[in-house]
Design goal:
three-stranded antiparallel sheet, alpha+beta
Length: 166
């Protein structure tokens, strides 16, 4: 009997699917995109300067990361790619049929020449600044949102979609 118990103690873990340490002590961690956005917005409220700097920061990445199936990267005119923390977070939750993630950072707009220019309400990223002619670019992140239309994945039934899009 001791031999059976000894074998069971050694073989059962090998045949059991992996569980995280948290799951082994009773936690079930199932984070939805909305959970992630709620956490990001609470962090933004707690320390706007830190979160704004973190999400505005991009780093150049190699081609292998640039071709990752779900992590979102930005392609630059010089052929290089860069990634931000938002690209990684979107990679966790997958992409829609058009290649976009469901978590959006809502960024303000500023003039590339002088961030103190007042821009008109209809200003758009990439337009020319009406004050100096420089390009309008992204400013600081103002909030995070789940774009529910991007949550739908091929093969996801209505019941599963309703759970993740709450």
């Amino acid at each position: 009997m001791k031999l059976v118990r000894w074998l069971a103690d050694r073989l059962v873990p090998l045949l059991t699917p992996y569980q995280s340490p948290a799951a082994r002590i009773g936690y079930s961690i199932q984070t939805t995109p909305q959970d992630c956005v709620d956490m990001l917005n609470s962090a933004l409220a707690a320390d706007p300067d830190a979160v704004k700097k973190l999400f505005k920061h991009r780093v150049y990445c190699n081609d292998e990361l640039g071709e990752h199936p779900t992590i979102q990267v930005k392609s630059h005119d010089d052929g290089k790619c860069s990634v931000s923390i938002l690209g990684f977070l979107n990679g966790l939750f997958g992409i829609d049929a058009d290649g976009w993630g469901c978590i959006a950072g809502i960024f303000g707009l500023v003039c590339a020449d002088d961030a103190r220019h007042e821009l008109p309400d209809d200003a758009t990223y990439g337009d020319d600044c009406p004050h100096c002619g420089d390009e309008i670019t992204t400013g600081d992140v103002q909030e995070f949102k789940v774009l529910k239309e991007r949550l739908r994945r091929p093969g996801v039934d209505d019941e599963a979609f309703a759970k993740i899009s709450k």
